[in-house]
Amino acid sequence: MPFVHAADAVVHELHGVRFVSYANSGLGSTELCAWRGEIPAGTEGPAHRISREEVFLLLSGSLRLSLDGEARLLSPGDVAVAPAGTLLGVANPTAEPATMWVTTSLGLEAELADGSRISPPWVR
After folding, report:
1. What pTM was computed for the model?
2. pLDDT of residue 2
3. Residue-range domains of the chain with CATH
């Protein structure tokens, strides 16, 4: 489906973050997936190693992204590119919610510190 209306986006929640999926195989994409991440104030997700490149665009608020231990505080309009194999950390250390747009290729997996692997539904 080449057009996805906001009402058709699929919502998922994991680690206290809301993932609103607009593009994945279930919505007609054959190569890419894209979603809006809504990160509440004071949230810190678990660090995880990504299997595919991801591109992050901060839409609102502030987020601290850590790529292989190098952390930056992002402001609206800032972009971060995480190559495949990067150890990724995302945190919202502020008192305000933050929103980001994320794009990657279908099939992304994340490896957590305990060695477990997840393939979230919004990247399939």
Report:
1. 0.94
2. 81
3. 6-123 (2.60.120.10)
